[in-house]
Amino acid sequence: MLAYGGAYAFFAILCGVGAGLIGKNRGQSFWLWFTVALILPILGNVAAALSRNENDEPRRQCPKCKVVTVAYAAKCMKCGEELAFPTDDEVLPSVNELRMLRESGQA
To answer: Rounded to two decimals, what is the model's pTM?
Structure first.
């Protein structure tokens, strides 16, 4: 009976690492997805794969502390400044758009 518990623990840890890597690749927390998949092994991996890719979200800079945050944020996480809806000239490219520009030699 103990051997089955060890096999399940090994499987759960592997699923946790897999979901953590999926989450990290999508711009989210490795440890959050590791924990979710450790508790719910297969469902955690599916949820990590279907979650929003934060690297595709446009960014903007806080006018007070100059920290770059996602464009949909209503408040700066560093200084607490209330952020109004950004205008088109305030929106910065997403992380994936910047990667593509660097690879093509335009940035």
So the answer is: 0.68
Residues 66 and 35 in one domain: no
- Tell me the H-state helices in the chain: 2-25, 30-39, 41-50, 95-104
If asked whether residues 63 and 96 sit together in one domain, one would say yes
Q: Which of 51, 69, 85 is the last residue of a domain?
A: 51
Assign 75 to helix, strand or coil. Answer: strand
- Pairing outcome for strands 91-92 and 68-70: unpaired
Whether the per-residue pLDDT at 85 is higher than 60: the answer is: yes
**Containing structural domain, residue 86:** 55-104
26-69 residue pLDDT tens: 989 999 999 999 999 999 999 999 998 888 888 898 989 989 88
Please report, for residues 57, 59, 70, the alpha-carbon distance to residue 101 in angstroms, rounded to integers and kept in the order given: 16, 15, 19
